[in-house]
Each structure stands twice: as structure tokens, then as C-alpha cells.
Amino acid sequence: MKTKREKRKKKGLRIWQKLVLLVCLFFLGYGGFMVYDMLTKPYTIALDAGHGGKDVGAEGIIQEIELTERTVAELQALLKEDGRFRIVLSRKAGEGMSITERNEKFRKRQPDLMLSIHGNASEESRAYGFEVYPVPPGRENHEESLDFALLLAEEMETVGAKLRGTDGVRFGYYKENGQKLLVDSVDTRIYEYPTFGMLNGMECPAVLVEQCFITNAADVEAFGTEAGCKKSAAAYYRAICRYVEELEQEAAAAEEA
Fold first, then answer.
1. What percentage of the chain carries pLDDT values higher than 90?
2. Is the model's pTM score more than 0.90?
3. Chain-centre distance of CA 23, in angstroms?
4. DSSP secondary structure string for all residues of 140-174
5. Are 57 and 64 within 8 A, CB to CB?
6. Pseudo-torsion of CA 35, 105, 232, 139, nearest 10°?
7. pLDDT at 12 > cutoff 60
């Protein structure tokens, strides 16, 4: 029986198959090329720039929305250049959209991975570092989300980010009174509280990252400026590539067995 990870693996078309398909779809016009794009790019990546429109998120040395939109734009460019990925954005830069609307848009598009990008903030200006929140324990796609989260943390540590907590990975919940509950990755108890809105009900591996503290000057300089967002996007891109390549290797090994 195939595992979820094996089932999630998608195969692309061979070069000659792409050429034949392209010629056939040429006669269908723009719609044909849309179909071609869907058939020849095996992975769909959903990218969410946290907040949006009048909701600028947290405010510190920069506004959170500056970080989220810059990073998503850089990551989108890298994924497009790669050629293997179709990108779905939760919203356009500058556009306002609620968490519910963004979540529903992604769920309709059925992506293979979802990454929601945010910036952290604290009244304590010395707080800094990177955190990543996968789908919590006991919920669908938890293990796959955790695998992806660990890769993201590893790549961010490689470019100099301090990982908060045990390994940069935490689980997030909201209690009945709206208070946020954050637990370290070693706490694998199953909580019945809802998790972050962008992770709820996602039918694919899904994570939310807190890229840096926008209230810490050094953290902003390293990961919140134009250069810092570009560096972070490159780390996320490498993590995405590693994740899908591991899926492909596992699927190939299963076929040979």
C-alpha cells in the first residue's frame, strides 16, 4: 500500500510528450497553454504573504507586511525560474484579504505545499530569531508538515538565523479566550485548540514561518531588508526543492522494491 508521501509524488511528462502536447494545445489558444502549464509542472506551491491591504501586521523597525510581500515576491521568482513549480498566491501585493478568504482560496486550488510568511514582534527589543509552525500533532498532514518545517529551519540556520526553541520548530494554538499558546516541538501532546488560521484544514503539508523579529534592528538588517528577504527566500526555495526531491527519491525506491 502506498504511503501519503508516495501518493503525493507527481510525475512530469517526458520531453517528447511535452512537445507533442504543446503543438496540440497551440491550436486551443490561451486556454490550451493554461492546460499545458498545469500538466507539465508537477508541483503546485501556495505562497501566503501574511496580512495585507490596511492590515499591515505588526509594526516595528519596519511593518510586517513589507517583509511578507518582499519575501513572497523573491520566492515566487525563484520558483518560476526553476520550471518545476506552479505558484498560487493567496493575494496580490497590496491587496487586502482575510485569513479565511486566503485559506479557502488555497484549499480550492489543492496545492502540494503551503508556506505562509510572517514577521515576529516583541515588546522586548532584544528578542530575535526564526520560528516555523507546522500543522500540529494529531491532525492530517502533521508528519509531512513537520518534515517540511525542519528543512526550512535547517536552511535558515545555514544562512545565519538563530533558531528559537529546540530546533526552530513550534506548534501554535488559540485557547477559548483567544490567548495564543505556543509550545516547543518536543511537546507532542494533542491539543483540541484551533491552530493558526492559514494551517486549518489544509489538505497538504502546510507551515507558517516567523522570519525574524521586526522589533530587533539586527534581525531586520539580516532578514527583513530587501537583501535579507532575498536571502530568506533563497533558503525557503532550497527547502522546497529538498522536500520534493526527497519525495521523488522515496517514490523511486518504492517502485524498485
1. 80
2. no
3. 34
4. TTHHHHHHHHHHHHHHHHHTTPPBPTTTSBEEEEE
5. yes
6. -110
7. no
